[in-house]
Structures are given as structure tokens and as C-alpha cells.
Amino acid sequence: MFALATLALSFAVSVSSFAVPRATPPAEWNTAVLENYDAYHNRYMALACNTKHNTAFFDQCCHPLLASQSLASRPAQCTPGASSDDDDDDNLPFCDELDGDEDTSSSAVVHPSTSKAPVVVATHSTVAAHTTPAATHVATSAKAAATPATNSASSSSLNTGGFATFFFQNGVAGACGTVHKDTDMIAAIDGDRYGNLGARSSLCGKQVKLTNTKNNKSVVVTIADACPTCVNSNSIDLSQGAFQKIATLDEGMVPSKTALIWQSVPDSEGAYTSVDVQGVDWKQGDAHQPQTFAHLFPEVDGVVHTLGTLMEDNSYKRAVREGNLPALVGSLWKRAIGDSGNPLEKGQRSDSNGRPTSYEAMNRDSALRVCEAFLSSPVGVSTENQPRPFVFISAEDIFRPVIPARYIETKRAAERGIEEMMAGKVDYRGVYMRPSLVYHAHTRPLTTPPAVLLDLSAAIHSKVPPSFPTPSSVLRSLGALSKPSSTTTTGSPLESIANALTIPPIHVDHVADAVCVALDSRNDVRGVVGVQRMRELIGWSTNGQTNLQSA
């Protein structure tokens, strides 16, 4: 939904290093992919490759062969003893073929910056090997000067001159502190961009979309490591699994373009990922700064606003995704003893980067700012889906008193504000999706056990005659007797508990399906959409039937 303008940058390549060739294979030499090391080393020395860096001869003859290749696939001058007219550049710096510079060809890849601007790059090159303290990186040791990306929040940068390669994990933690598998969708960013290799970078957890420009295959990866041996500040190393999404390992390096997605995800070992989505055009912007994305609205058929937070301390999100029950309990306890409800603090919380994280900013203000920009945008060529919908992901009131009342209060305030904006605008409609407990066995493993219990409770309550007392009816009666607080507009917490006992949980995929139905204006979905209505929209449940989806 978010996009920024693109700025082209250029890079000048410069190489200057000194090292001594060695006769023993480095630890990172991959015998399954590359030729026998002794054969390569002998040929390298016989051809005097150590004196021919940055020449056409080096590019043609001095890289290691793949295990499946033979010298017959290269020009005759690449065979030791053959004459060559290209051996005319002996005054270049003496470089080590074993220190990762088996490839000095011109190339380019993307490298994200610490700014909010997306980074896009094209690359071109071949394969080489290099070792870092944490992992075996496929890259080159030549460092090229790269023009830094712009730090403007309203523009993006086109960066060229880097390498897109792959590396192996070797069972050790990356610079961001987590051990990953070769199949995980991760990447190592250039060491100059990463910063202090002995500390966790602000880039850790950021996502990068990389596209192979030869076949247009794309992959979204999470930054989890640093690459101190990448060719320049715009180079990036992919995990083996990520590289295979866009190319074969035999290719080693491929022309590519990349974009930094303004989104952070936990740096964990979880193999399940949902960010590698084909057919999605990723954009970026700031929900509180409509000018960063408003130019996209004239061409869209509708908007879905999902931004929000259940707790102002966002550490709970990582705990839920990782299935870390102690960490989740710790977040809840911290909230219980630390949230004083001081009105002077409301709306003023922010993260380490200065971005607001309060309920008011995340749940209410962001939705209102995005909706304002959407309603004020002119309708472009795409006018078939009329009236255009603004779908706001709200929530059922089921979390109090575990979660502060301000959570649901700010959700309701956003609903009211959007509805007021929609008044009199016949070309627009507001839709307010109110899911209950949203569960997913893989991405939110801790949600499955309570989802099972709440689903059972809802099923039992639905079978009990209305005149028969139930736990929920008792709680509602007690809640009606209690005097509402002067600081809340949501009633007694007992009513919220009663809602949790009677409203079944809903799978995240069902929420998404219902949103898709609501977006289609032919269905004329408007106003509040609760769980039962969501199920009706997707044709999943009838006669009060409930069923938990397993995946």
C-alpha cells in the first residue's frame, strides 16, 4: 500500500588489497559445488591469476569451475600453457584468490539503508567463496565504493554496483544473534551498512524483496546477519534456500533488483514464513504521514487497514509468534504492574526509533489519517469497484481485563471517526471487521490452546436454552450491577469475559477471506462485521456450527 519515489545511484569500483595465495583449501570450500581445490589452485598459480585481478582474463579464466564443468567450457587461453593476448595487465594489486576474491566481475545487488527509503538494485556476476566468523558467505572480497542511499522518508533509492550471492549457515548464529537453517528465508547485509559487527544492528529483522531480473522470480528475506566480505555496501548475501527461490546454485550470482520493506519481523528459527508472497507489489510509507503513500490511492479499488497493537509493549508479538509462553506471561505481567493508566502518558509512548506506539497512535490515529487520505484522493482509472471500501480491522471486546480497556476504546473510536468521515460520501463505504481471538497453529502457536477452549465454550453456550443460566449470562448480570468507571466507555470487564465465552475464535485465513469478500462492492458489505457475519460471508458456518481449522 505504500510506495516512495526512486532515485538512481551509481557506483565506482575500486580494488586494492594484498594477500598471499595458499595451497591448502579454505574451510569454506564447498566440494559439492566446486571443482577439486588442488586442481584449481595449481591452475590459478600456473596462469598467474594473482597478478591479473580486474582484467578480462581473470573474469574468463581465474574463477573456480563448478564440479559439473570442465576447462573445455572456457576459452583456450584458460588452459595452462596456452598463449593469451589478454595477459596484459600485470601491474594490478596482488590479491589472494583464497580470501574470497575469486570473483571480481562487475555486478550489482541491493542493499538496504537504515533510512525509511526502499532500496532497489540491479546485479550481475559469478560465484566465489568467503568466510565470516558466523557463516560461509558466497561473495567477493573486492570493496567497491557505493553512493549511500537517500535518507528521505518520501523517496526511495535505486542502487547499483553490488552482488547478489548465497551463503551457508554452518550451524552458527548470525550477527543478529540467531542460528538459522540454510532453508530459512534470510539474508546477510553488507558489513558497512550493518555497522558494529559485535552488536545487533537496527537492520536486524528488516525485510528485503529481491527480484532476479533474468526470470522475474522474487523472494522476500529477513536480514539476520552481516556480510563483512561483500563486494560493496550495496551487496547482499542470501541464504541457500532463498537464493534457490530465484536462481540455481550453479549460477552463483544473478542480476537482481531489491527493495527494503519498512517492516520488522522477529529474527527466529521458525521455518514457516508468510512474507514470500508472489504477485504482491510491496510499497512503503508512514501511516501517520499520508503524503508518503496518498499518491497510490487514486488507482486502488479499496483499502484494508490492519495496523494496530494489542499491548503498547510490542514484545508480546515476538512471544506469540515464537510460541514463547514465559515471555508472553512476562509481557502481560509487565503490563499489569506498569500500566498506571496515567492520562498524561496516553498517546505519548514511542519506540527506540521515535515512532509512536501508544494505543491512541496505533489503533486510532493511524486509521483516521489513512482514511482521510483515501477519502480525499481523486478516483483514477480504476472505477469498477464502487463505492470504494475502507476496511478497518477492529476487534471484539473479549480481552479485558487482561488487556487494558484503552485497546478496545481506541478501536471503537477509530470506527466512529471513520463512519463520521464516510457520512455523505456515496462513493465510499466503511467496513469494520471485528474478529475475536485470531489463531494460527504455525504463526501464532500459543493461540491454539485457548482457541480450542473458547471454541468449545461457544459451542456449549450455543446449545443451552436462553432461559437456562450459563457462565456468560451470570457474568453479564453481575456486570450490569457494577458501577461503570468514569474513565471508560466500554462497560464492565465482566461483560468482556462473557463475550469471550460466547464468541468463537476465528482462524486468520477466515478473517482474510471475509475481508476479500467485503472488498468486492457487488456484495455491498457495510458497517460492523462480527465473527458470525464473517463466517456467513465466506459460507463456512451454518446453524451455529463451529469448527477449528488446523493450519
From TrEMBL:
Pfam families: DPBB_1
InterPro entries: Expansin_CellWall (IPR051477), NAD(P)-bd_dom_sf (IPR036291), RlpA-like_DPBB (IPR009009), RlpA-like_sf (IPR036908)
Ranges of Acidic residues composition bias in the record: 84-104
Gene3D superfamilies: NAD(P)-binding Rossmann-like Domain, RlpA-like domain
Superkingdom of origin: Eukaryota
Residue ranges of the TM segments: none
Composition bias type Polar residues, residue spans: 105-115
Domain RlpA-like protein double-psi beta-barrel: 162-255
Full protein name: RlpA-like protein double-psi beta-barrel domain-containing protein
Provenance organism: Agrocybe pediades
